[in-house]
Design brief:
The structure holds 2 protein chains of 2 kinds. By secondary structure, chain A is mainly α. Chain A has 16 helices and no strands. The N terminus of chain A is likely disordered.
Chain lengths: ~550, ~300
Amino acid sequence: MSHATTMDHEHDHDHKPKGFVKRWLMTTNHKDIGTLYLIFALAMFILGGALAMIIRLELFQPGLQFVNPDFFNQLTTMHALIMVFGAVMPAFVGFANWMIPIMIGAPDMALPRMNNWSFWILPFAFTMLISTFFMESGAPAAGWTLYPPLVLQGGDNIAFAVFAIHMLGISSIMGAINVIATIMNMRAPNMGYLKMPLFVWTWLITAFLLIAVMPVFAGAVTMLLTDAYFGTTFFNAAGGGDPVLFQHVFWFFGHPEVYIMILPSFGIISEIIPTFARKPLFGYVSMVYASAAIAFLSFIVWAHHMFSVGMPLGGELYFMYATMLISIPTGVKVFNWVSTMWKGAMTFETPMLWALAFVILFTIGGFSGLMMALAPVDFQYHDTYFIVAHFHYVLVTGAVFAIIAGVYYWIPKWTGNMYSERLGKIHFWWSAISVNVLFFPQHFLGLAGMPRRIPDYSTQFAEFNMMSSIGGFAFGLAQVFFIYIVYRTIKGKGTTKATDRVWEGAKGLEWFIPSPAPHHTFQDGEPVKDEHLAHVSNH
Amino acid sequence: MSSSEISNKSQDQYYVPHLAKWPIVGSIGMTIAAVGAATFMNSETAKVPVMMYLGFAVIIFMVFGWFAEVIKESERKMYNTQVDASFRMGMVWFIFSEVMFFATFFGALFYYRNLSVPWLGGEGTGLSTNTELWAGYEGVWPTNGPGNVGGEFKLIDPYHLPLINTVLLLASSVTLTIAHHAVVANARKKAIIWLAATVVLGAVFLFFQVDEYKEAYQHLNLTLESGIYGSTFFMLTGFHGMHVTLGAIMLAVITIRMMKGHFKPDSHFGFEAVAWYWHFVDVVWLGLFIFVYII
């Protein structure tokens, strides 16, 4: 029997590999891979944010000031692709890597080598995607939805974008498989499914969504590729094809995709609110069922993105009603969060502030979504700034706020240092105010008819655009400040050491291990003590 | 501590490997292949996608290295039943992702046949589209569209080569199952023979498939560019053919491993994973045979 085997297990506890290549490039450790994901996501968040700053700069005043229309479209397209696939999704996978094994008492992720590969595809795929900016054709400019026939006019960038998306898909699928295998196979002996933290539950459901829809997206862009280079006519009516099919296939992927970005947010918020309300999560089981219901509904509502594209009346009606159904499980969640806080002994540390802002602002985004679910009025909103306002409320004040809340909540556990509460609160109020200045006026712009993805606009829209841009610059700057806070915390500058429990009201396995979490946390087969858990159902 | 104690201990524990060197090789290979393919597609002059092949070579190198490591660990009994379960789940959900990939193209096919082509022909709300843009177009499947893209073409007779191929693949599923039973019964020789038969059946299938493509291109004028019929036909059968090729290679590897004495009646996940994959490819073919060739 080889001794290499035992080396891997014996003197484990804080045994980190030495040297950059071994520690990071060849790592199989879920915490290191989680860190890689989070740092990558932060870098992409800044890059995507920088593109957004140029967009808001151009829109500061009517008229063409800084960029030409084609480059403007490249900016909106790449801003979205980078934020969705580079920032938000990897950030959640980073959380999953760091927290899921700890939360369920597992020694590591189920398939550690594949875990490494899932991450190390991303930097390469994004290098490829971003390199299109420097090509003669420029970057893709048809919007992140990549609708043909416009996207097929992209020239050289099509193949690069398609292959980059294939690689991102491979990475996501492998990541999702790992999450499923970890949760289903690696739970500590008495960690039943209904004892799992809600974050683990929402990620389990998200992973199924990913496996189901990433291949569909891969198929859709493959059809774009063959239409562009190999003479197929999937999206060309002259050959019997139909460009609308792309929209159906894209949104069959795209609608579950938006829940892929929001379900883990629900999970994070469902961890934070009970901690600072010092009460168990209200309606734990209903939260699980609501998440599953949202995931199921996400597969049968896709064409609400296409009301104005031309659909039989029956289709319009079906997709309208099905979409409205989603507000029921989502409402269950919002009311459960509110009920959790009801009569709780609440304190308002930074993570809680972000979580509260999430509940309120995400709900606003949900309401504007409900408005657009109405097929007849959607004809007015479609492709205006109203939709831009809507999805930024759900993705920025929704997903991104949840990510930031989660970072503040768990960074003491990750680094062993408390962040500065004073700076965190400044960051919160700065962001919460500026983000509303940034996105709220866009509702009015949209209702007044300002189209999205246009670098110039009629002078009647000038005031609200200027307001929005000022909010945008302020919000962008606030996130640079966030990086400073994170940096200080990692370096332990002007901070205090974190206790193991960190938060007075915290429950769950992660709060009963040292801070920072040791390189290897749990041995295989250690049973979980129920008194450490936040949710212990009698099932 | 005696060495037997050590091995028992490692068996009890979930094996967490350290220092994975292959993933980064895989990422580099994948990137070289993707950049090579994209550059080649965009090039007016390049005849051979050299860089793409180089990337594939790196990927193949990675697959060999990675699997060799896993097989070595498996043969040294470093994996307990819990590790085995992780592998099983991984393979099951990977196959599910493949199902969704094929479902995309089947869904597209149904959409064209039942909705958009009839609309182009003036059905439903498509009346004005038809009269204004494509007057006289009938919208009947098979079609290469109102533009007659790629020119007139003929169809492949489903009851000739495709029927033979259906029989071949179904037979290969049977032979594979016999081999599986032989593995469980610890009849190694029998298992090898039936596995080899499965590989041969797969290879003959591929041979006929190539033959059919030649026939389509040379005599029927049915090409990838024959409008929507050609697009869906070659996309579906082409991706299926790629999967059969991959599956046949995997089966060949499993056969060689059987010859080398790998796999035990109670531990042969590698065999099972490939078998699942092969059955999946078989089921996809049945879908193709019915919805692409016959109907």
